[in-house]
C-alpha cells in the first residue's frame, strides 16, 4: 500500500496550491479519502474528507469555501485545492485512506505560506 502526496511548497499569502495524493496497492475506489494537516507544535487535524464515490464531502468549518477536496477513481488520486492561503495554513499535509477499521497514511507534503 502506498499513498504519495505531492504539490506542496512555498506560496505567498493569498496564493493557491493543489495537492495530489496518488494511491496504489489497495482498492482505492472502495475507500473514503481525507486530508489532514499538522502544524509545528500542534495536533494533526482533519481538513477535508470525501466518500468513496465522491458524492459526499466534508470540511473543517474554518476551511470551508477556501479548500476543495476531489477525487479521480480512474487515476487512484485524491486532490486538495487550496485557495486564498494564509500563513496559518502552514503545515505538513497528509492524505489518509479509510474504510471500516482499515486506514492508511501518506508520508506528508510540506505547505509553507509566507511572504
Largest sheet: 7 strands, mixed
Beginning-to-end CA distance, first to last residue: 37 Å
Backbone CA Rg:
13 Å
Oligomeric state of the chains? single chain
Overall pLDDT metric:
97
Strand content: over 45%
Question: What class would the helix/strand composition place it in?
Answer: mainly beta
H/E order of the elements?
EEEEEEEEEEE
Poorly predicted runs of 5 or more residues = none
Helix content: under 10%
Describe the structure.
By secondary structure, this protein is an all-beta fold. It has no helices and eleven strands. Strands 2, 4, 5, 6, 9, 10 and 11 form a seven-stranded mixed β-sheet that branches. Strands 1-3-8-7 form a four-stranded antiparallel β-sheet, with no helix packed on it. It is globular, with a radius of gyration of 13 Å. The chain starts with a strand and ends with a strand. The mean pLDDT is 97.
Amino acid at each position: 500500500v502506498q499513498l504519495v502526496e505531492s504539490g506542496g511548497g512555498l506560496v505567498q499569502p493569498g496564493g493557491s496550491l493543489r495537492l495530489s495524493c496518488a494511491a496504489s496497492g489497495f482498492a482505492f475506489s472502495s475507500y473514503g479519502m481525507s486530508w489532514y494537516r499538522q502544524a509545528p507544535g500542534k495536533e494533526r487535524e482533519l481538513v477535508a474528507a470525501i466518500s468513496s464515490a465522491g458524492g459526499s464531502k466534508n470540511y473543517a468549518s474554518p476551511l470551508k469555501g477556501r479548500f476543495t477536496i476531489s477525487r479521480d477513481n480512474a487515476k487512484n488520486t485524491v486532490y486538495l485545492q487550496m485557495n486564498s492561503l494564509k500563513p496559518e495554513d502552514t503545515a505538513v499535509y497528509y492524505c489518509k485512506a479509510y474504510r471500516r477499521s482499515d486506514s492508511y497514511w501518506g508520508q506528508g507534503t510540506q505547505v509553507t505560506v509566507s511572504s
